[in-house]
Amino acid sequence: MTNLAKPDIRPANPNFSSGPCAKRPGWSPAVLNDALVGRSHRSKPGKARIQEVLDKTRDILGIPEDYRIGIVAASDTGAVEMALWSMLGARGVDMLQWESFGKGWVGDVTNQLKLDDVRELKAGYGQLPDLAEVDFSRDVVFTWNGTTSGVRVPNGDWIPDDREGLTFCDATSAVFAMDLAWDKLDATTYSWQKVMGGEAQHGMLILSPRAVERLESYTPPWPMPKIFRLTSGGKLNEGVFKGATINTPSMICVEDALDGLNWADSIGGLKSLIQRSEGNLAELARWVENTDDVAFLADVPETQSCTSVCLVITAEWFKALSDDDQAAAAKRVGAILDEEGIAYDIDAYRDAPSGLRIWAGATVEATDLEALTPWIDWALAEVASEYA
User: Fold this and answer.
1) Residue among 6, 4, 24 nearest 15 (CA)
2) Positive or negative torsion for Cα 152, 154, 158, 161
3) I need a surface site. Which of 48, 284, 362, 366 has the fewest CB within 10 A?
């Protein structure tokens, strides 16, 4: 590969991190001016502000009225753990794993909860497990979109309406960018810092009536940390889903989440958010189709993520390198783009195959991705010359 001329056009926003993700277009700290700092989150205005976040979340995502929505501690991880610790153990569980976060949930269920009846259905990076093998007489735990592999489930059709077990869905890099089948999901989690580009720390937990029934009819055999307790006296703690959070939330983060929801509403809601994300994927796909140097880690188009787009380097010079040199070369590409102020934080996840991971969710502008790709071509050429 010969050296290429350095491109002239730069992305207006170089933030392509997969979490925390880019803020929405036009964001500035001024949107936080009305945050209820110094006020109790349990005050009347504090609870009203939190409730507004819950109500707008329901409206934009189209969450059924009989589903509960709550703000919980410790980001998506806290929300997932709360659901697993509170409801698993009533029946056997199928754990789906095709990237690092799914693998982590398997470890927690087997090593911390120490459940005996656990089936692990797994696939390597870039692939999905055989969804037809899932047994829905059991509980099922899965990620809708594998953040570190760039692989998503194509839809919810593989989940039956008459399932006996509950579905636990980590949707943190899917919600607000993909069309989730809420009638197929019983316990769904995400965090503000992903698709909406909000501030970190807080998680969201969305429960179906079936999940509530499990909470009120089943008591796990292990001690339950206070931060995970969703019931009191055998009944759901409804306050958690009406703005009375278990822990103290940041009212600055609440204000920022509300700003993101208001922005989503202003551009046309969920349909527009999905269109923006899918349009961003299409922009990257056009580039991938016209180069021999990169390819999607997910080789099935229907499973390619429109948020955490994971790419492998396929250039001949790169394939000739040892595994260690490939890892170093891929990181060098990311480092060059970082040094140039073109793209921050686009290295592949540490456990994933060497390559690049570009966030393309709804807060990213397609024009920035269009400007980015020639710079990646240039950086690849620069690194190729270093290994010549």
Assistant:
1) 24
2) positive
3) 48
Q: ∠89-175-235 over CA atoms, to 5°?
A: 40
Domain ranges in the chain are 29-266, 270-386
Judge contact between 348 and 357, C-beta under 8 A: yes
Domain 270-386 class, CATH top level: alpha beta
Look-up of token digits 């769904």: 188
Query: For residue 279, which amino acid is it?
Result: G
Residues contacting residue 33 through CB under 8 Å, at least 6 positions apart: none
Q: How many CA atoms lie within 13 A of 377 on its CB side?
A: 17
Joined together, the tokens standing for residue 197 give 């580009």
Residues in a beta bridge with 95: 120, 141
CATH number of 29-266: 3.40.640.10
Helix (H, G, I), strand (E, B) or coil at 45: helix
First to last CA, the chain: 9
**Per-residue pLDDT reduced to its tens digit, 269-299:** 999 999 999 999 999 999 999 999 999 999 9
Amino acid occupying residue 226: K
| pTM (2 d.p.) | 0.97
What type of residue is 99? Answer: E
In 3D, which of 192, 188, 191 has the Cα closest to residue 205?
Answer: 188
